[in-house]
Amino acid sequence: DAKTTQPPSMDCAEGRAANLPCNHSTISGNEYVYWYRQIHSQGPQYIIHGLKNNETNEMASLIITEDRKSSTLILPHATLRDTAVYYCIVRVDHTGTASKLTFGTGTRLQVTL
Amino acid sequence: DGGITQSPKYLFRKEGQNVTLSCEQNLNHDAMYWYRQDPGQGLRLIYYSQIVNDFQKGDIAEGYSVSREKKESFPLTVTSAQKNPTAFYLCASIPDRGEAFFGQGTRLTVV
User: Is A40 on the interface with B (CB under 8 A)?
Assistant: First the structure.
């Protein structure tokens, strides 16, 4: 599985959009980009994933560049409850073989008043 | 309700003692994973398993052992060979397609 790199920390004012970047320059054609977040002392929570098209759900939007080497998670109106560590990972979705699913150190997002 | 359950939530271990962390899922997922998280750090992969009676070492398997006798269960044993076992341990199950589901974690402390 391809590795990802993320900035270690970011700040965002409450009510503003939070844009979290992720670099995955060695991504393979069949690898999906997944985003999770972890609030202190809890298990990570799934946010969104995509292959090559932009995706949106009730939590966030995912923008994947045309060459798929990077992506951005967008929280459109950040609140204090969005303060967490955000992980970007890439994974092949297929049957029969468990992938060595690795997480990096993520981006610690601090939402402030 | 389908989900993944880790127990206990808190565990204390004496030096030199083996302890086993439980992970159970009723999501019918084949793949299960164990991660270790130290304060302020990301998740590091210990072991993972695709099917019953098969498992693979992750990046930090030394001092740990696992078994996969049932699809629903993937217990992790922290052995006395693990010199620094104090950490937060997370179990996950993952379907062939789609997102991973994580348990709420076990916090292990050596006393």
Answer: no
Q: What is the pLDDT of residues A42-58, one digit of tens each?
A: 999 999 999 998 999 99
Angle A79-A81-A87 (CA atoms, 0-180°, nearest 5)? Answer: 100
Coil vs helix vs strand at A81: helix
Contacts of A3 in chain B (CB under 8 A): none
H/E run at residue A12: strand A9-13
Q: B46 vs A43, A96, B43, CA distance in Å?
A: 16, 20, 9
Q: Number of C-alpha atoms within 13 angstroms, CB side, residue B83?
A: 0
Quickly count: other Cβ atoms within 10 Å of residue A55's Cβ.
17
Tell me the three state secondary structure of residue A80. helix
Band of the pLDDT at B12, cuts 50, 70, 90? Answer: very high
* Apex A31 CA angle, A29 and A33, nearest 5: 125
Asked if pLDDT for residue A99 goes beyond 80, the answer is: no
Count helices and strands in chain A by DSSP H and E runs: 0, 9
CB contact under 8 A, A43 and B90: yes
Tokens 């609030």 belong to which residue?
A39
Of B45, B48, B5, B56, the residue nearest B30 (C-alpha): B48
